TrEMBL record:
Domain AB hydrolase-1: start-end pairs: 128-283
This protein's UniProt keywords: Membrane, Transmembrane, Transmembrane helix
InterPro entries, per the entry: AB_hydrolase_1 (IPR000073), AB_hydrolase_fold (IPR029058)
Name the record gives this protein: AB hydrolase-1 domain-containing protein
Length: 403
């Protein structure tokens, strides 16, 4: 084969491969405009990551016998949400024999169990309502270490309540923004109405996609008359909104989906019109802070993100922090002016990252940008434990571990 023939063959196959890749990309873009495919891409609910393992046997995920109670919470539209109640380790130790004597597995009536009574009857009980990210179930990935980190600050009193949204794990139905918010509200209302835990003893925690649900819950209750404000809201690896997320998202931090189309504003804008679930967390977080300020309600908000997050860039947290701060200032503040104030006021912790707190007469908005922690690993870090305890202690200074 001559050199010209060789070059021609290489070019031919090269162009064919490029054409095939372009065709596949066009098909992907077309599919993204359909509701069903878009739902699977946004929520990843079909990817359970706990296949061939029984969620009704939490012990196989590293828990002690009956440290976790699997049960169901009913949402307003009659959806049944699969949930776990996780006991803090020191409280479990004190009641180990009685808890271990109970039957294991799924519990049709959680109110009959000792774990529920320990949650309900102790006036010093604190509860973290956990809202997980896209994909998986209550037991997937780094979520189990996350539960331990959430209660580690006070292992005798901080319980964790986590659940699978509709369409996830063993919760039936199809996920949507409206549906997931209804689910998060149903779980929160169950904690307050059935268990009887007041909002002042509850921290709302969300990670990744769960941060959008967490903000929606805090926003919903802050807008009630009279308003209800929780001990705090903790967001780990949040995103500004779905349109912004898809414009920056890269699979495994390398393969972009829609970001190449930003060079073509008309086409990019056209495709964004097909996004069904917008999840406008930036708007909700501004409104939530503003309502708390107007109502003169004490509030606390912590935003945590790792710089090496491949899935959602930490810039999303910086933007959300700005939107939250804007809600606390009647005249607002530009992003550039806030960055200037950060340069003056933020605490540099070296390899541990930076901390910036914005304080008003009524609230504290805290941004923690870590140097490392990726997207999920950070959930088990002490920074999460500290954030939860900081909120509980601020809401009630007497809540601390006695020396």
């Amino acid at each position: 084969m001559s050199l010209n023939d060789f070059v021609g063959t290489v070019l031919k196959y090269g162009f064919t491969s490029l054409a095939a890749a372009a065709g596949l990309y066009a098909v992907l873009l077309g599919l993204l405009t359909t509701a069903t495919f878009q739902s699977h891409v946004v929520y990843l609910h079909a990817i359970q990551m706990t296949w061939f393992r029984d969620l009704d046997v939490p012990e196989t995920f590293g828990f002690l016998k009956n440290q976790v109670t699997p049960f169901v919470i009913k949402a307003a539209d009659d959806q049944h949400l699969y949930a776990w109640h996780v006991l803090p380790i020191e409280l479990y130790r004190k009641h180990e024999l009685a808890l271990a004597a109970e039957q294991t597995g799924f519990v049709p009536d959680i109110t009959s169990r000792l774990a529920f009574k320990l949650l309900r009857d102790d006036p010093e009980t604190r509860l973290v309502i956990h809202m997980h990210g896209a994909g998986g179930t209550v037991a997937s990935g780094h979520r189990v270490p996350n539960y331990r980190a959430l209660s580690a600050g006070h292992p005798g009193r901080i319980h964790v309540l986590t659940f699978d949204y509709r369409g996830f794990g063993r919760s039936k139905g199809k996920p949507s923004e409206v549906g997931l918010i209804e689910d998060a509200l149903a779980v929160t209302e169950w904690a307050m109405d059935v268990v009887g835990i007041p909002a002042s003893r509850i921290v709302i925690f969300g990670q990744s996609m769960g941060t959008a649900a967490a903000v929606a819950v805090s926003h919903h209750f802050a807008s009630q008359s009279p308003p209800t404000v929780f001990a705090g809201t903790v967001l780990v690896a949040p995103f500004v909104n779905v349109p912004t997320l898809v414009s920056t998202y890269r699979v495994a931090g390398t393969l972009p989906i829609l970001s190449p189309l930003r060079r073509f504003p008309a086409l990019f804008g056209y495709l964004l019109r097909f996004i069904r679930d917008q999840w406008l967390t930036n708007e909700r977080i501004t409104q939530m802070v503003r309502m708390n300020e107007v109502n003169e309600e004490k509030y606390r908000l912590t935003i945590i993100h790792a710089e090496d997050d491949w899935d959602i860039p930490s810039h999303h947290s910086e933007l959300l922090f700005w939107h939250a701060v804007n809600g606390s200032i009647p005249v607002g503040i530009t992003y550039e002016d806030l960055e200037y104030k950060k340069a003056e006021s933020q605490v540099n912790l070296g390899a541990a990252g930076t901390i910036m707190e914005w304080r008003t007469d009524y609230g504290v908005i805290r941004e923690e940008i870590l140097k490392s922690g990726l997207h999920d690993v950070v959930m088990g870090y002490p920074v999460v434990t500290m954030a939860v305890m900081r909120h509980f202690e601020a809401a009630d200074p007497s809540f601390t571990i006695e020396p």
